Amino acid sequence: WLSLFWFLHSLIFSSSLSYQRKHQEIRAMRSQLKKIEDLGAAMEEALILDNKYTEHSTVGLAQQWDQLDQLGMRMQHNLEQQIQARNTTGVTEEALKEFSMMFKHFDKDKSGRLNHQEFKSCLRSLGYDLPMVEEGEPDPEFESILDTVDPNRDGHVSLQEYMAFMISRETENVKSSEEIESAFRALSSEGKPYVTKEELYQNLTREQADYCISHMKPYMDGKGRELPSAYDYIEFTRSLFVN
Fold first, then answer.
1. Measured between alpha carbons, how far is 191 from 201 in angstroms, rounded to an integer?
2. Final residue before a domain boundary, out of 173, 193, 225
3. Which residues belong to any copy of the EF-hand domain (predicted)?
4. What distance in Å separates the CA atoms of residue 191 and residue 205, rounded to the nearest whole number?
5. Last residue of a domain, one of 173, 205, 226
6. pLDDT tens-digit profile of 44-71?
């Protein structure tokens, strides 16, 4: 019985890229558990109530099976959500992996959820500039985040809640980046992939134009030649949203 249980357990955790296939294999092996349950029932009918070879029961094994089956469904659901997020929101696979890795790092007890302090530390590790406050003092910025991920304040953030929050924030960044890039493209005559010094000063305040010129890289054409007074607004915009 134990060997069957640990085999099922290894099937679920063996590969994150094959959850669905492994889960189907587990479902297909349900018949083996039925055989064990039938043998257990036959032993009870024969009044063999004490099995000296194991302390485990068919009821216990069935409960473990159900737990593993539910765990497999949850893990598959989370994976499908992440794949859908990557395909529909523009969130990169690398970003999703980083989010998941950081969650696991701060989930010290492997409970599948973070308490508020662990969640805050996780956000800081991902580049969130959250203020340091003394215990008991107001923390409006973090409280605003908790309003989204833990509105009922049960004290914990699940993996699903965490991933949904991070994907939402990453999507907002992507949209904001595209909006700013489009604004620069509108400043550039004929929608060129660069903006000139003259165009910046014509359309922005002097302070804004000075900032752009001091932070934008010179634009290089396809042959690696630097165009005079031309600045790469695409690289500049995307660098603003790295985090």
1. 17
2. 173
3. 94-129, 137-172
4. 21
5. 173
6. 777 776 777 677 677 777 787 777 777 7
